[in-house]
Amino acid sequence: MARAKKKQASGEPRAVPIAWDVPSNVPAVRVNNFVIQHTDDDFVISVFEIPTPIVFGNSEERAAKVLEMGAITALCRGRFVLGPGRMSELIELLTRNFEEWQKQIRVAVEEASK
């Protein structure tokens, strides 16, 4: 369980357990496009879903139909504002988690090829 640091009356930080609550009405959505902007004080992360357009025909016909559309709408699925400290922490957590995933995939591939 993660712990948050909270100052005691003495001013010294102490660890406080965090109980993660993800309500059932919070959707888990797949996103495939990201925009990261920053100000002097914050980073703004916007996550988007760009759905694959539904078009029919052979590959040339499908390509032509997509070009006729002019633009495909990117649907914003969430926006997050983080200060520099939290942004640094997020980058570290994402990097560590991705590296762990890569190790697991590598082991699974090696095991499957035996």
Q: What would you say this structure looks like, in words?
A:
By secondary structure, the protein is of the alpha+beta class. It has 2 domains: 30-82, no CATH class; 83-114. The protein has helices at residues 59-69, 84-112, and strands at 3-7, 13-17, 33-38, 43-49, 75-82. Strands 3-4-5 form a 3-stranded antiparallel β-sheet. A two-stranded antiparallel ribbon has the order 1-2. β1 and β2 (13-17) form a beta hairpin. 0% of the residues are buried. The mean pLDDT is 90.
List keywords for this structure.
114 residues, alpha+beta, 2 domains, 3-stranded antiparallel beta sheet, two-stranded antiparallel sheet, extended
Provide a count of the helices: 2
Poorly predicted runs are none
Global structural class: alpha+beta
What best-fitting shape do the alpha-carbon axes yield?
A: extended
Q: Strand order of the main beta sheet, please?
A: 3-4-5
Q: Give the SSE string.
A: EEEEHEH
Percentage of residues in DSSP E strands? 25-35%
Beta strands, count: 5
- Residues in helices, as a percent range: 25-40%
For the report, how would you describe the main beta sheet?
Answer: 3 strands, antiparallel
What gap, in angstroms, lies between the N and C termini?
37 Å
